[in-house]
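@channel anyone free to eyeball this complex?
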Amino acid sequence: MKKLLVTALLIVAGIPLLLMVAELPPYGSAENATYTHVSAHYLEHAVEDAGAENIVTDIILNYRGFDTNGEVTVIFTALAAVLAVLLLDRTPAAAGEESAPAPADEESTQPVSIVVSFIVRLLAPFIALFALYVILNGHATPGGGFQGGTILGALAIALTVVLGHKEAQRLLPEGLKPWLQAAAPLTFIVIGLAGLVSVGSYLEFPAVNGHVASAVATFFSNIGFPAAEGLSWVRAMWLLLLEFGIGIGGAAVIASIFWTMEAE
Amino acid sequence: MLTALWNNLDYAAPMMLFLIGLYAVIAKDNLIKKFMGLNIMETAVFAFIMALGVVDGGSAPIIDHGAHAPFTNPIPQALILTGIVVALSTTALALSLIIRIYEQCGTIEGNELRELG
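replying in thread with the prediction:
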């Protein structure tokens, strides 16, 4: 009875959706309204405005830098919330169960298939290298901080499955842990404030615009390097720094969420 | 009407996927299954917005030396990158809440939880 009702509801909800879809401009048409306004402008001007060949990176880190700043804060907040929900304010009974760690320890050293273990250990450095490549090439090829960070986080999860909880957690040294987990929002805030101080607007890259830029340009022409090229190089470095912060922070957050849940 | 729908199949398919997710959210009692339904709905929305950005014969929006117009619309891609991260965050938070509910109540079936309450 309930299933029939739900199905009827879905049909009623689905018909307007399909009617709307039928009225949209044809799939893949270049006259699509989403394509002819802001996108056209971005495709034309993004490289000179923002400095990276990959326009998606330009949009994420430059045109919509505020949005990405908020987004990295969202993942960090999610981690904080997960930690708060799972670790804080435990009832005494639940805490008591956890303080008897002997069975949990055995669980984490559960034997994994030797083939899987060997392959993961063998591939780990290459996966890490690939993740770093994806992070650091985000401005010129498909990829970037979020994608590379996810690969790095997945590597940490795979290593946890193979090596066990204790071994894998050594990837994040205890003293550095909170800093790495907050790396993404911290990078954004530091670069944003540097822009605020040196150029006068939040997240404007320092030494690309404003009065510091002319000093940098003079420096580059003094050492016999084309000034314009030098400035775009400096801007690429800022983009790279942001990507790196996002990647490391994202990986640390993903791995920490997994470890917290796995410990339950 | 039907030919228009067939031509826009790439938009219609995410809509169907959205309804499948909605079904799971409404009809399933298990909280994890409910949340899987919500994730299916999220994926459907992502697929729909990505489909809106496709241009026939378009290449990736990377202005390289060999690249030539038309380029795929970069805005939906940037938007969905943001969306995926938020989806991941909500999933992580919801799963940890479900873990706590199981610890406290011993069940994650919606109908059994209602009886407890």
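from a first look: Residues 95-106 of chain A have pLDDT under 50 and may be disordered.
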